[in-house]
Amino acid sequence: MKALRSHEIGGPETLTLDEVDAPTPGKGEVLVAVKACAINFPDTIIIRDMYQMKPPRPFSPGGEISGVIETVGEGVTGWNVGDKVMAGIGAGGLCEKVIVNAAGMFAVPEGVSFETASSILMTYGTNIHGLKDRGHIKEGDTLLILGAAGGIGLAAIELGKAYGARVVAAVSSEEKAEAARKVGADEVVIYPRAPFDKDTSKALAEQFKEACGPLGANLIYDVVGGDYSEPALRSIAWEGRFLVVGFPAGIAKMPLNLTLLKSCDIAGVFWGAFAAREPQRNAANIAELFELLKAGKINPMISETFPLERGAEAITKLANREAIGKLVVTMDS
Length: 333
Hints:
Blueprint: E1 2-5, E2 16-19, E3 29-39, H1 41-46, E4 64-72, E5 84-88, E6 97-101, E7 105-107, H2 114-117, H3 121-134, E8 142-146, H4 151-162, E9 166-171, H5 174-182, E10 187-190, H6 198-212, E11 217-222, H7 229-233, E12 236-244, H8 257-262, E13 265-268, H9 271-277, H10 279-294, E14 302-307, H11 311-319, E15 326-330
Parallel strand pairs: 8-9, 8-11, 9-10, 11-12, 12-13, 14-15
Antiparallel strand pairs: 1-2, 3-4, 3-6, 3-15, 4-5, 5-7
Helix pairs in contact: 3-4, 3-10, 9-10
């Protein structure tokens, strides 16, 4: 089988398309013929050894897949050869076949494409955990989303609207602003490219405050980090919740006196660890997502698909923050 693998620390250009033997599932595992693998921010840094998880090399990036069960391992019940499944696997998805822990799989809902199925678990799973479990979102909240035109950001807009929030989307271009409006953003802020000096940071904070309104943002969903975080924090409401989701622009240094002045909370959102520690709560969240998908309230915006041999291009595009919505690698020619 073919696998796009990392043999050394480096960027997407270091990945090679290898011919390898198909693995054999062990107890509690299944072998899945991968049909689609969504690309996410962790894929851009796991190959550089900058992610929390560091798989032994050689390995394939790709943590979110959908496909068809090809072999069922010992002790697996409730799943059969031919079942269409989706799973978050951390890494290993950019290959034609992959071993998946049966306990972590979900059935692909009827009528949902493999491309869409591969784009739900990590993106929307992160967001439902972040907004509901960590942010305690409620109807009438004002939600400010940084990096609102990426896969995570657009999904957060959809979920925010589904929960009855007023959504302010912050993006870096008019093209991305249009994508945010298309999925339901009420207001859009177009921010400049970092790094910021003091005056630029202050000006951006004023933009956020104006867009969020006089009471500020009840929730700030920070998918970007870096110089963007402090201006956003300055627009937070009294007793607001600042949610740390990712930091492709760098790890922010936050003035903690603002948390006292606004009596606000800063909370981390680590969906992968949550799903591993609390699988039943995660399963309930995923079931809720399936209902929202069925009702048409969420639907991943897949902007581009790539064959496996061009998987490195998809990772490069995401790493360069050029993607709008989701990028998906498909295995069928």
